[in-house]
Amino acid sequence: MSEPKRVAVIGAGPSGLAAAKSLIHDHPPGTFAPIIYEKLSHVGGIWPVRSDDQANIVPPDMPTNASKHLVSFSDLAWDSVKVHQSKQPGQDIATFPKAHEVGKYLQTYADKYIPSECIRFGTEVISISETDASGPEWNVISRASTKSNITAEEKFTHVIVASGFFAAPEIPQLHGLDKFQGVVIHSSQLRDLDTLLSRMANKTKIVVIGGSMSGGEAAATLAFQISSDRHAAGTHSTNAERLGVYHVTPRPFWSVPPYVPLNPIADGAPNPCPIFAPLDVVFGDLSRRPGDQIRFAPSATFASEAAKMFNALLQSLMGSNQSGWGDGSLTIPNSAFEKPPWLIISTTHAEFVRSGDVKVILGRAAGIEGHTMMVHTGDGEAIELADVGMIVMATGFTPHPALSFLSPAIRQALEYDLSNQYDPIKLFNFGTMHPLIPSLGFVGFYRGPYFGVLEQQARFLGALWSNSLREVPNEPPARVEDIKQRGQFPMGDYVGLMESFAAILGSERWPLSPEHSSREGPAIPARYPGKTVRTNPSAADEQKKACEAMIRTIARQSMFVAPAVFRALQGRWKLTREIRSVIPTYPSGIFRGEANMYPRKPTDDGYAAEFLYTENGELATPEGLRMTGSRSYVYRLSEFEPQAITVWFVKPESGSKEVDYLFHQVQFHEEASGQHQDAWGSGWRAKGSHHLCVEDHYDTEYWFRLHAIEIKEWGIGYTVKGPNKDYWTRATYAR
């Protein structure tokens, strides 16, 4: 019997864990003997494993951009992960998990599938090179992270680089930045705004530079912290009232929320009550891809027609080209529809732009002099931003430190380009290897890797090195030399990658269940199981649970209406309320005014989001009397499925913003009601739970008319009966 192939796996993040697990479990025992080198003391890579770990690039409480259905491997369901010590496995995990929960998922995965002796924690690889002698092809030199002067040398037959792409924050050169007296911070280091205010030299503008995901996230995070400070229940910083957020981006982008409509159009018109699903579930729907065979399409090779189709899909999900949001700075011009789209994923960014709390400027920062920043727009205009106190560099990460251990000969073979932050090495076969060095593999070395693709890359390398491929492919690199032609994610075609790898590996896509067709539903990792699922009953059970969770997600029409509606409530509304009282002593009339939903940090950890609702206006009675009035409530969105909206009274003290007690819960009808017409019109309906206030009984009804992700109008109706009250009200809110 031949000796197992020794494989050095560099990194114990998602990529390294997927690689080692596949080598161990997808091949006959003794085929491979992987050793993972990890310089940290735990698995996870950039994903923190503790809720108090602030040292990682990713903040522990930041939610993922993709849902838990895609942030997962094929043979570990989230329902089996114990995230909270006081909870059962799978309990209280949101649809978009927090970063530290992903870390717990990865720890569970490692404990389940990777023997502890296969991981060397606190060990950093400092050099890999090919050997000249016969036998093992690789020489790996490492050192203990805490004892940098002690090195060790080992021989391996193969090496997998799984050290990640987001190696270190990238801060580009900007004229005058070295003399700037305010705050300069990378978006990955942005945590609590209050700790930075004292260093802003009493200036009022915060400028975020960057047009990709982190730019939108940073701008929205800052605007949210300012809003939360302004509308908190307790004391707040006086500086928050004066601060403004400016988002400088070189290109237009789609500002997409995490939940989008599955059916934004009905009978050729905007659907007033669409069904919602996580964005990645919609994008990953196999039925959206034409043709019998689905194959990878790199963004760099997008023909203008393909780009138009993708932009048209985004426009249908958003309901417009974003021209109606605020000052129009989010508008996607017609000329951009022929190029691969750029997007950010944010719950609040678009609404902060609508309200003016985030001001988007299309252009490039040219320099900073004193506290004035110069921005050059695409049409040659120069804009001066005065009174700048903070610059947030949302300029991404450099991958080069993750390749520092490569020898000069390897770098030359990979056509290494130090000036290229986008794809610095040339990799074939969907980012896994180079034909000149077939025993060197890469897993997860690209922008925006999905867990399912990491698994497929690892399986491909194992099949290649065990000579079990029917045919060795030669897929060309996705590397793009012309910076103007680069898309946001060169390997962003998740469905195409999953399908292409499945074809190469000779594995079939599984249906979600025997009742579903193979082409039905999203391409979640559990539908592309490895050999482990076929031979390991425990892994097969995990695969089944993951598919069942996906079926529950897409089966219930009202599943994600609450978070989608809650998000769209943010901001300013025109309010008209009709009041009709049976008792003469209680006034009837029409109340007109303005209402606002101000986002703020939840005042209870059990909730995912919270708005302070305020209204001000004037009541005109039939008798000609006019009375001013105001009121406040707190709206909350529960953290976990099934997500629900609750409405709370505010303490009656003058000016109080503190939550008092529950008013009612908003309970959406199980099915959409687009065809139902009455005084409210068509849209999603909800009932407020019955409420007894002292001796008065409140029955509440809600109505929401949507246009894609936006609420065009919504309303609340109350019927109130008690010893001294007998009236009904119907309030309508419009933008």
TrEMBL record:
<keyword id="KW-0560">Oxidoreductase</keyword>
<dbReference type="InterPro" id="IPR036188">
    <property type="entry name" value="FAD/NAD-bd_sf"/>
</dbReference>
<feature type="domain" description="DUF6314">
    <location>
        <begin position="569"/>
        <end position="735"/>
    </location>
</feature>
<dbReference type="InterPro" id="IPR020946">
    <property type="entry name" value="Flavin_mOase-like"/>
</dbReference>
<dbReference type="Pfam" id="PF19834">
    <property type="entry name" value="DUF6314"/>
</dbReference>
<dbReference type="InterPro" id="IPR045632">
    <property type="entry name" value="DUF6314"/>
</dbReference>
<comment type="similarity">
    <text>Belongs to the FMO family.</text>
</comment>
<dbReference type="GO" id="GO:0050661">
    <property type="term" value="F:NADP binding"/>
</dbReference>
<feature type="region of interest" description="Disordered">
    <location>
        <begin position="514"/>
        <end position="541"/>
    </location>
</feature>
<dbReference type="InterPro" id="IPR050346">
    <property type="entry name" value="FMO-like"/>
</dbReference>
<protein>
    <recommendedName>
        <fullName>DUF6314 domain-containing protein</fullName>
    </recommendedName>
</protein>
<dbReference type="Pfam" id="PF00743">
    <property type="entry name" value="FMO-like"/>
</dbReference>
<dbReference type="GO" id="GO:0050660">
    <property type="term" value="F:flavin adenine dinucleotide binding"/>
</dbReference>
<keyword id="KW-0274">FAD</keyword>
<keyword id="KW-0285">Flavoprotein</keyword>
<dbReference type="GO" id="GO:0004499">
    <property type="term" value="F:N,N-dimethylaniline monooxygenase activity"/>
</dbReference>
